[in-house]
Amino acid sequence: MVKHIFKQTLLLIITLVISLHALAEEEAREAVAYASSTSIKVNETFFVTVVVNDRVRKNDLDITPLANGFVVGSVNAQSSYSNINGVSNNETRFTIPLMVQNKSVTEIPALKVDGLQTQAIPLDVIADNESVDRLAQDVLFDSSLSTNSLYPQQSATYTMQVMVATQVSDITIEAPYGEGLIVEQLGEDRQYRAVIGGRQFVVLERKYTITAESEQQGSQTTLYSGRFKGAVASNDRRGFPTGLGIPVARTGDNYPIDVRAIPSDYQGLWLPTPSLTLSEQWSTTEQEVTVGDAITREITLAITDRDASQFPTIDIAYPASVSVYDERPVFDEQDGKTVMTLKQVLIPRQAGDITLPGMKVNWWDSENHTQRTATLPAKTIHAAANANSAQSNGTEPLPALPMQTEVVEVKDAGYWPLLTSLFALLWVLTLGMWWKSVRLQRAVVGNNTNHTAPRPDNSLATAIASDDPIKVQKAWRNSPAHIQAHTKSALDSYLASVYGNKGNRQQALSALLATNNSVPTPNNPAPSALASITPE
Hints:
Blueprint: H1 2-28, E1 31-35, E2 39-41, E3 45-52, E4 61-62, E5 70-72, E6 76-84, E7 87-100, E8 107-108, E9 112-113, E10 116-117, E11 121-122, E12 124-126, H2 134-138, E13 139-145, E14 149-150, E15 155-164, E16 168-174, E17 181-196, E18 199-212, E19 219-223, E20 227-235, E21 241-251, E22 255-259, E23 272-273, E24 276-282, E25 288-290, E26 295-304, E27 322-326, E28 330-334, E29 337-348, E30 352-356, E31 359-365, E32 370-376, E33 379-384, E34 408-409, H3 416-447, H4 458-466, H5 469-477, H6 481-499, H7 505-517
Parallel strand pairs: 2-12, 14-22, 23-31, 25-33, 28-34
Antiparallel strand pairs: 1-3, 3-7, 4-9, 5-7, 6-7, 8-11, 9-10, 13-15, 15-18, 16-20, 17-18, 19-22, 20-21, 24-26, 26-29, 27-29, 28-29, 30-33, 31-32
């Protein structure tokens, strides 16, 4: 009975999954139509293309709506298949030669193909003796501005699109400009295809950030449009290329911009934006930690219409009982916002209750014209003493490194991967030479009958070899006091290279390894407990 119910349930689930998959595929299918030109002379031949993102038959296309007002030529159908990264795509393309019979035709009607339907395409039909400005139809320009009201140091996004339906060469794009405005290109150019007004175009899209200077507050200025220039290939009367280029230039609208004054009652760093969010993540949710344990705090600040160079510096005053190591902030673009991520490693150095400060960012809501404050709460933890730590043996705690904040944008790594590989190779050679020396020391100890000093702590050497700063610190805290005292300075330098971006990490790691290998014999070693037993 149970097996029967299980089989029925499994069959129902499989049927549901197949049905949903088929429904998704059905919803994804579409038919798109576009014309080679939408300004047509009577008795002039042009082409309509119908594209279906599925494999269909030639007879599936119904062209009977074209019988009224058009002379229809022979339909050509081509199917193609592609598989990119495991995603398969089918496409069927129909090409239909058409000729308009009279001026009363105003559109190409919608066509049906295998249960799908295209959109109608409006036409501008002119008499045979009238001229058509093909160039005006083949190169279009459009622009937009995200807002025409700015505060000083606030940015808006200007988007310009050049739509081309013919071959264009010698392309140049001039940026917009305006008095009291700072204009900078935003990101890389985008290029894609789109059907616009019943025709297929290649769209070139470029964006700029427009920032109002502080001196412009309380005034008005004008953003003058960007400009596109190029040369369109020309053909003779028979349609053959002449090798000559016809100059073409396009420009868009100019935009008046109102630059508002900074409110007199605003407090804090001036930061105007329509949207700002501040959040954080901790590596642990526990309220109790051990002295010397590392805690990671990751702070994320996202601001709309603001470049990375315009972000505020995050500077949190931590108590002296905590060592702080700042990683370099990383910037990224997400959903139209610039996002800064700052990672901090916090290490308690004293036992007791420690309050890790919160932070706040004052900003001006440019849409609602009011001051707001984004905050992160303070966090209180209890640091328990570590019995094996250097403090228990009277050793001074590791000093906190000064915080450093450096703006880093995600870019091409350049030659750094090559240098990193070179340092890694040198590190492997150093580790090999160290291992060879350790084996030689073991051989000498095995053949020597005299009492020899103990070698440096193997667990610390192993941690150093892993190049994991957390493991290195834990192994160091569990090492004997004389090893901690001898390697403390080298450990400081290594941690500074990892968390504070001071010095070369591989060199600091090699120096720490060499220092650990050179630990001297402790003075007055404690006698063995068995040595005091004398048989009677």
